[in-house]
Model the fold of this input.
Amino acid sequence: MVGRPGRTVVEERLRGLREELGAEVCILNGENVADGVGITPKLAERLLAAGADLITLGNHTWRRSEIAPYLREAERVIRPANTWAEAPGRGLAFATAADGTEVGVVNVLGSLFLDPHRSMWELIDDLVDEARERTPVVVVDVHAEATSEKVALATWLDGRVTAVLGTHTHVQTADARILPGGTAAMTDVGMTGPHDSVIGVKADLAIHRMRTGMPVRFEVADGGVRLEGALVTCGPDGRATAIEPVRVPWP
Ligand SMILES: [Fe+2]
Done:
């Protein structure tokens, strides 16, 4: 989700939408909520109060310095696992569904353009094993630029996790599917925010920077707001039975 428009639609629409969809757990990627880059503790608390059970982050995790001490203590806000070993916070946490089912949530960063400290491939198997020791329902948010990395990770984890859902590119992909082993996958779940924009940024500013190469201070756009995501259904064994894109115009 991106900026104030994204936060507004989450605060005004998420609870009702959860009821309409019967969504028992809601995971939200919140790394772009603070003016388009990063997140603050106050904004994280607002998103949790608005109906998100767990917040994942990404390459902009550390943009706001106040988030570091918050992440050290936070149980419902996680950052990519493949960062420095001593970085505050964690890359795996658990949410609890209305019926008591625990849902393990793993957050990792892809390599292309994002240059994580470690490759997600070095630690994804251990993270999934750790999550599965507690629950068969495990969701992976793979925050990555390259479709190939996201598809490869979903294929690698097929049969071991409930869903592998991509974030970061902000454009919802048309490839929601259940893989042969029972893992739901979608390369990018889309953007909750202003779609009359260049992936959330005022289009004229983004285009000016691309055309001239000159530094431009980006501002979050405000038109064409939509709430986007994916709805995954699974059985008690953690195998996915359905995945559907969510795409709700607002207001
Ligand atoms: Fe990102």
